[in-house]
Amino acid sequence: MKTKINGKNISFNMYDMKDAKKYEDALKVLSEEEQAIQSSVAKMEDEEISMFVFLEKQINMIKKFFISTTGVDVIGDCTDLLAAREMYDQFLKAIKSDQKKIAPFSTKRIH
User: What is the pTM of this model?
Assistant: First the structure.
């Protein structure tokens, strides 16, 4: 898959074992970081974590995902969480679209 997100060219092959591993590892880290952030959201009510810190953690989490998966800092100097999430969604949509290109393996196709 080749796509452009936030003006950055991304080349990612989900059918390459190395890229697939990077993607799976990055998703695991993303999930762990998101859980840690969500647990700190409860503390926001007690003003132990500010909105700035929350936004910074979320944006950095998405930034790390892109760098780990594609080697490209797609987020750059973006400071808008909604824009960063849109970039992440755009990447996932491109992957989903790419998944439709391959049919499940079947020996019937070679007979």
Answer: 0.81
Q: Is 68 in contact with 33 (CB distance < 8 Å)?
A: no
Q: Around 54, how many Cα atoms within 13 Å sit in the side-chain half-sphere?
A: 15
> DSSP letter at 71?
S
Which DSSP state fits 23?
H
Taking only the tens place, the pLDDT of each residue in 82-95 is 999 999 999 999 98
Nearest to 57 by CA among 33, 22, 73: 33
Could you tell me the sign of the dihedral formed by the alpha carbons of 96, 3, 30, 55, in that order?
A: negative
List the beta bridge partners of residue 8.
Answer: 5
Of the candidates 42, 83, 31, 39, the residue with the CA atom closest to the CA atom of residue 59: 83
